[in-house]
Amino acid sequence: MARIIDGQDMNMIGGRVRALRLERGWSQQTLSDRLEVLAIYICRGSISRIEDKRRTVTDIELYGLSQVLGVPIESLFEGTGK
Q1: Distance between CA 55 and CA 52 in Å, rounded?
Q2: What DSSP state is assigned to residue 38?
Q3: Residues 63, 73 contacting (CB under 8 angstroms)
Q4: Residue 5's pLDDT is what?
Q5: Which of the 8 DSSP states describes residue 55?
Q6: How much of the chain is in helix, strand and coil states, percent to nearest 5?
Q7: Predicted confidence (pLDDT) per residue in 39-82, tens digit
């Protein structure tokens, strides 16, 4: 089965997640803690791997990231210009 994205990247949102997190002045642990309030458990190490595109992201995690970062889901995808 063909992969949706080419190369070694495991997700398409890691760079935007990192940028949005840093814009807010949050640590990776802070982002993890805010997700936990929504019962979405992504440890600090997994946040790092998402940002480095070495970990996949589930749909529930994608939803949670958009909620805690306060952006529409589509704006998490790089190159959307939003």
Answers
A1: 8
A2: T
A3: yes
A4: 53
A5: S
A6: 50, 0, 50
A7: 999 999 999 999 999 999 999 999 999 999 999 999 999 775 54
The single-letter code of the amino acid at 81 is G
Question: Within 10 A of 26 (CB to CB), how many other CB atoms are there?
Answer: 17
Element (H or E) spanning 23, and its range? helix 14-23
Structure tokens at 57: 């992201």
Instruction: Using a cut of 0.70, tell me whether the model's pTM lies above it.
Output: yes
Q: At residue 1, does pLDDT exceed 90?
A: no
Q: What is the Cα–Cα distance from 26 to 63, expressed in whole angstroms?
A: 18
- Positive or negative, the CA dihedral 72, 26, 48, 32 is negative
Q: State the residue for tokens 């600090």.
A: 44
- For 67-82, give the secondary structure using H, E and C: HHHCCCHHHHCCCCCC
